[in-house]
Design goal:
Layout (H helix, E strand, L loop, with lengths): L1 E4 L5 H12 L3 E6 L17 E5 L17 E4 L11 H16 L6 E7 L8 H13 L5 E7 L2 E2 L4 H12 L2 E4 L6 E2 L2 E2 H10 L9 E5 L5 E2 H11 L5 E4 L5 H11 L4 H11 L10 H4 L7 H13 L13 H5 L14 E8 L3 H8 L12 H13 L20 E2 L2 E7 L4 E6 L5 E10 L2 E10 L1 H26 L3
Parallel strand pairs: 1-2, 1-4, 2-3, 4-5, 5-6, 6-11, 7-10, 8-13
Antiparallel strand pairs: 9-12, 14-19, 15-16, 16-17, 17-18, 18-19
Length: 475
């Protein structure tokens, strides 16, 4: 079966692609930039993959969609973009997708959305409902799967719960922790997405999909603590406003403030699935919340997290066309270039490709943590994103407040681009050649503030970058 898959570099899309390839399908992967898509994970199925570049906010870019596709998945989401009105962007993307797909031979479109079971919806769920309406067409069949909180290694919900419980033994929390929801394991979500493929009884139908437990957010936090052997105390106060709740979520977890606002808005509403027999028809065994948490940690312990919500890009990232800087710019930049002889290239390479996250930055980690805190204070991503895999990196991965632009162990080169708040643009590059480790920091300032910033941090660079270089070289 020839399948058109959007959102392929996202948390759900990457996992779904693996399953579709294992099922023997030919998958047309829709990406906004081919540089963002790495085929390393799919090298055994490379003949089954076709990659096309599409931006669903730009109708002209959709001409590359093959006309002979049979089925399609719509997994595009703009809630975390932080760029303008995400609901309008979502509606426009959906309409452009529908218009483009109506020109193909597609029989079924599968849309993963949110559970909608109240008259008064959050902005996020209202937008999801609007997208569902926009995707309906007389030219193809639409199947909608509506999920609540998705729990799995690397999922936004799991990582936020993990942040809160593992860092705070005592919590003073907003009243929305009493809201009920029905979480679902990521494994069940993928089973549903694959299960409805080509099933005509699901055509032009919608289904709520969820796990076996209905819990409040407070119960979810406490159960997570029990599983991890952590005793936690939660005190709910009624006086915390939505804005204060957003700030609380933003500073305690690794989410952005924009996403925190939309999550708080959604968390005020019960998200409980309407009963249906779809799991029975598809022979799916549903997991409990505790089982979903345990499955997530099994993946983490094996260092086998396939995808993470941290790796999702904002619209600003694409707008800036950062991928054009795979070769670091030379003009109008400040440079900090260092090099050192290494005795064992392989060991040094292992250290380079393990940088960040729990490993840290090898020297003066407390200064990196201060920089991360300041970044968070001014609305940046901070250091809490970490990294999804402790030893491997690929283009598009997040590493604390950096983004991987290029990662190739064979060519012994790693290039990172800064996503922290800066009055300019910054790159950090590591490469090994002829027994020498080269470490290059590049900063392209924006105006006078950018130049002042560079000179203000210059005294720290000498100690931090020199110490880091020696540690990477094993000296």
């Amino acid at each position: 079966m020839k399948i058109f898959l959007t959102g392929v570099t996202g948390y759900i899309g990457k996992r779904l692609l693996i399953q579709l390839l294992e099922e023997g399908h030919h998958v047309v992967c829709s990406v906004r930039d081919k540089n963002r898509f790495s085929t390393k994970l799919f090298k055994n199925n490379i003949s089954q993959i076709e990659v096309v570049e599409n931006d669903f906010l730009d109708e002209n870019s959709l001409e590359s969609i093959p006309k002979d596709i049979e089925n399609a998945y719509y997994l595009i989401h703009s809630m975390s973009s932080g760029d303008g009105d995400f609901s309008e962007k979502e509606k426009t993307s959906a309409l452009n997708f529908r218009n483009a797909l109506e020109k193909t031979q597609v029989k079924q479109v599968i849309f993963l959305t949110g559970i909608i079971n109240e008259d008064k919806l959050s902005k996020h769920l209202e937008s999801r409902k609007q997208v569902e309406e926009a995707l309906k067409s007389s030219k193809y069949n639409l199947t909608c799967l509506r999920a609540g909180i998705i729990v799995g290694s690397g999922s936004a919900s799991f990582e936020i719960i993990r942040d809160i419980v593992e860092k705070l033994p005592v919590m003073i929390t907003p009243k929305w922790l009493n809201t009920r929801c029905q979480p679902i394991a990521i494994r069940n979500v993928i089973q549903y997405l694959v299960g409805v493929l080509g099933k005509d009884f699901t055509y032009n139908e919608n289904y709520d999909i969820a796990g076996t437990d209905i819990l409040t957010y407070k119960e979810m936090l406490l159960q997570y603590g029990e599983i991890r052997g952590l005793k936690r105390h939660i005190f709910i106060v009624p006086v915390m406003t939505p804005k204060l709740s957003s700030y609380w979520l933003y500073f305690v977890t690794s989410t952005s403030f924009f996403l925190a606002q939309n999550l708080v808005d959604s968390m005020k509403i019960d998200v409980v699935a309407k009963p249906n027999n779809l799991a029975e028809k598809l022979n799916i065994k549903l997991f409990s919340y505790r089982e979903a948490i345990q499955l997530a940690f099994d993946k983490i312990k094996q260092n086998d997290v396939l995808s993470s919500w941290y790796d999702s890009f904002t619209n600003q990232f694409h707008t800036r066309k950062v991928w054009q800087y795979l070769e670091v710019p030379e003009e109008g930049c400040f440079k900090d270039k260092r090099e050192i002889l290494v005795e064992n290239e392989e060991e040094t390479l292992n250290r380079v490709f393990s940088i960040g996250g729990k490993t840290g930055w090898y020297y003066a980690d407390f200064l990196w943590q201060i920089r991360g805190f300041l970044d968070k204070l001014f609305g940046g991503v901070g250091l809490r994103r970490g990294r999804k895999n402790m030893s491997t990196l690929e283009a598009g991965d997040s590493v604390d407040f950096w983004r991987v632009l290029y990662a190739d162990r064979d060519k012994k080169r790693l290039l990172l681009f800064a996503e922290m708040k800066l009055p300019g643009e910054a790159w950090l590059e590591f490469k090994i050649k002829d027994g020498v480790l080269y470490q290059n920091a590049t900063f392209r300032p924006l105006g006078i503030s950018g130049r002042l910033y560079w000179y203000s941090v210059l005294p720290f660079h000498g100690a931090i970058f020199n110490g880091m270089l020696k540690k990477l070289a094993g000296k």
